[in-house]
Amino acid sequence: MSNTVLITGAGSGFGALTARALARAGHTVYAAMRNTEGRNAGRVADARAYATEHGVDLRTVELDVLSQESADAAVDAVLAEAGRLDVLVHNAGHMVTGPTEAFTPEELAAVHDTNVLGTQRVNRAALPHLRAQQKGLVVWVGSTSTRGGTPPYLAPYFAAKAAMDALAVSYAAELARFGIETSIVVPGAFTSGTNHFATGGHPAEQAVIGDYEARYAGLMDQVARRLADLAPAGADVSLVADAIVTVVDTPHGSRPFRVHVDPANDGSEEVSVVADRIRSDFLTRIGLADLLAPRPRPRSA
């Protein structure tokens, strides 16, 4: 069955790959990105050319997750053009690297704004429509850092991803009775094939960075190299896009709650299996087992 899909942060990396893969799978895909008439105009043109070349329904829409007005307008544009929205993919994110102490509180807040509050803005725009149709899917693109290995110098990003995961888990239960399903796709450390590291931010406190560099010289480069060494041959970022396509294509009501795509195997999946089982057991113990799966849509709907 073809779905109408909106995916945030789809100008590059996981987002662009996923948008193309979903379109190839037969879905109508809206690749959302900001500055579609400015610095991302080339990416809009690339998406249009890809759609023409491959005969797929890949479209673009302006969406800045830092703006509620932009999120509202993007969802309205999708509904006006496609007539419906079935799947929302939270992919937009921003990475920063450096000693944690060197980041100002405002810099940490900015990372949280993109990675966490951005999902809330898009949810507030899209969920009323999914709830009204009593069916839908929300996919959250997380990170193994939430429960797996956590190398240093990535704390603001890791903390934001952990917050997003907690939000996704709570939303899953709160949306189930509206017939809305949740899947959390959890990529590991892919050190090539995305722009995460290349476009990542850095802290402003240069003096503090110098103090840490004296004790931890070249640490970030060491971490990147060692993460790359852990990945087996053939560990391509397209694996994440493939996993999201599989989730979307799985029949409603039987999609996995969490899917790991972690070639380096940093331990996140082992911890998540326990955490998700405890969640399931606890909701069952307090008489809320029905929140573990989306409620079927009434036959008359």
What's the overall average pLDDT, rounded? 92
Largest sheet entry: 7 strands, parallel
Assembly state: single chain
Structural classification: alpha/beta
Give the strand order of the largest sheet, numbering strands 1, 2, ... along the chain. Answer: 3-2-1-4-5-6-7
- Helix percentage range: 40-55%
Q: What is the terminal separation in angstroms?
A: 18 Å
Gross geometry? globular
Could you tell me the radius of gyration in angstroms?
19 Å
Characterization of the model:
This protein is an alpha/beta fold. The chain is built from 9 helices and 7 strands, in the order E-H-E-H-E-H-E-H-E-H-E-H-H-H-E-H. The protein has helices spanning 13-24, 41-54, 68-82, 105-133, 155-176, 206-215, 219-230, 238-249, 268-285; strands spanning 4-7, 28-33, 58-62, 87-90, 136-141, 180-187, 258-261. A 7-stranded parallel sheet has the order 3-2-1-4-5-6-7, with helices on both faces. Helix 1 crosses helix 8 and helix 3 packs parallel to helix 4.
Brief overview:
The protein has 9 helices and 7 strands; from the N terminus they run E-H-E-H-E-H-E-H-E-H-E-H-H-H-E-H. With 301 residues, it is an alpha/beta fold.
SSE diagram, text form:
Layout: E1 4-7, H1 13-24, E2 28-33, H2 41-54, E3 58-62, H3 68-82, E4 87-90, H4 105-133, E5 136-141, H5 155-176, E6 180-187, H6 206-215, H7 219-230, H8 238-249, E7 258-261, H9 268-285
Parallel strand pairs: 1-2, 1-4, 2-3, 4-5, 5-6, 6-7
